[in-house]
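Researcher: Going back to the complex we discussed earlier. I've cleaned up the inputs and rechecked each line, so this should be the final set. Can you rerun the prediction on the complete assembly and write out the structure?
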Amino acid sequence: MQAPAQLTISPRLAKNIRRNVKERIIELILMLAALVAVATTFAIVGVLLYESLSFFKTVSVVEFFTDTQWTPLFEDAHYGIMPLVSGTLTTSAIALAVAVPIGTVSAIFLSEFASHKTREIIKPILELLVGVPTVVFGYFALFFVTPMLQTIYPDLPSFNMLGAGIVMGVMIIPYIASMSEDAMRAVPMSMREGSYAMGATRFQTAIKVVTPAAISGIVAAYILAISRAVGETMVVAIAAGQQPNLTFNPLDSAATITAYIVQVAMGDLPHGSIGYQSIFAAGLVLMAMTLSFNIIGHWVRKKYRESY
Amino acid sequence: MEHKASVLENLADVRAMIKRHKRNDTLFAAIGLLCLMLGLVTLMLLFWQLIADGYPKFSLDFLTEFPSRRAGRAGLLSAWVGSVLVMAVTFLTAVPVGVAAGLYLEEYAPKNWFTDLIEINVANLAGVPSIIYGLLALGLFVYMLDFGQSILTAGLTLGLLILPIVIVSTREAIRAIPVSIREAAYGVGATKWQVVYDHVFKYSYGGILTGIIIGMARALGETAPIITIGALTFIAFLPPSPITTEPPFLNFEWLSSGFTVMPIQMFNWLSRPDHAFHVNAAATGALIIVVTLLMNGAAIWLRYKIRKNIKW
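Model: Rerun complete. Updated structure for the full complex:
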């Protein structure tokens, strides 16, 4: 007599195993897709660091942060990032000076004063405007806003930070208004009702109750808007000028970090040259600036969130 | 008598105060409306200006002519064909990967540090300036992987750029599906994938589509990352056609072809000193705005419809 030579697997069990294997494979594929996001972050940091390291072999870090000239493509090459940083900060500051007051007041109006119907119409329009491509805003800055400003200041150069900054501000208004409005809508109705019951007017309720309660969301909106303004490319590349210029005067023409990257990429720089590496070093500075603003923004929202 | 007078005086004070506060209220409402309109009307005026500036070029010829040194004859043919092909690559990469990642994060991912890492990454990527994606593509796709300055590189770059948008909207759409649906499917013996694909995914289709449309509209208007990879601005030829008359009817040479897209063509025309080219730029801008507004409008309308119709 022979012992049972092999284990026979019943067809049902076999089907079950096949099914389990298939389930595991699918899960693995989905996980790999999710990992693309992680890989992208690592690739961004990796590429920026790799090219920047070659750059910093030629240029000392001290020179990079202290030299007051940025002329990597000239015979007499200087590698001071500060002129680009000053251009970036100035245009962003102008944009915020325009967008923060108008955006915030619009948000308060929309959330606390406007009727339900008005809000239903305006809110989608705001969302629609957030999606307008930025190259179009560059056209407005160059051919519409700057000529208008030149009628006030006849000495204004046709490429200037003021016009670019204002247009960038107009561009960011819907963003701030929409995000701040979301934060204010999240404040519970009972707080408003409590305020009204004490005899407060709408204005008092909006300023003294709703805005303080929503302040974490509103400030986060500002900070994310700063990050957007700092990373904005096309408006400044088109309208603010291409000449690195260490100045905080909005009436001057000056290049930003992003405008410099565009300018170099438009030309035909050989791979591996110092000019090519310089845009990665500039990109690294830009990334560090926007990343810190983003982190502060998320932190503010989390830390100062009032819970009801 | 004296007491009564002081009460009356007090009452008058209070009335004056109420009046003042009500006046402040109306005043602020007016200022608020003004601010909102200032923003909206300025933008509307700017769009109107763009359309008015570009009006002379609105004709079919503009879409069927190649760019030219003479502004009057220059057209958008290579640019819009390039845009369509780049968008096709973007769609084919960002949509499967983004939806799959969204499904994983909502339905499969365990709660641990690893999932947290992925989530932080997605949130962070959404805030990275678009030009940084261009630098990534220049270093990685163009030189390390040697894809060159091609349609494939541009499509992949924009695909990565809109990936967070697709992931986030997929997750939001899935989150709206109640647990009871999943439990019912498990109850009749479905496997996890059957539940996820046949029920969760199919019911959240509309919401996912909304995110995809918004992402594609964003990709269409993006200029900075494509300039950074070094796309050419003067292209007077079309990439090889993806569909051929000979078997196997498909050809992939177009992926490695040089190209230009509409926003880059607009940027190029903008940077020329000759005013005649600025008219072309305005017409291109008007076209880009109309298309992106239509896409975003469709997405918002779709979301509104979904919110209204589905009641679990």
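Model: Worth noting: The two ends of chain B are 69 Å apart (CA to CA).
Researcher: Good, that matches what I expected from the previous run.
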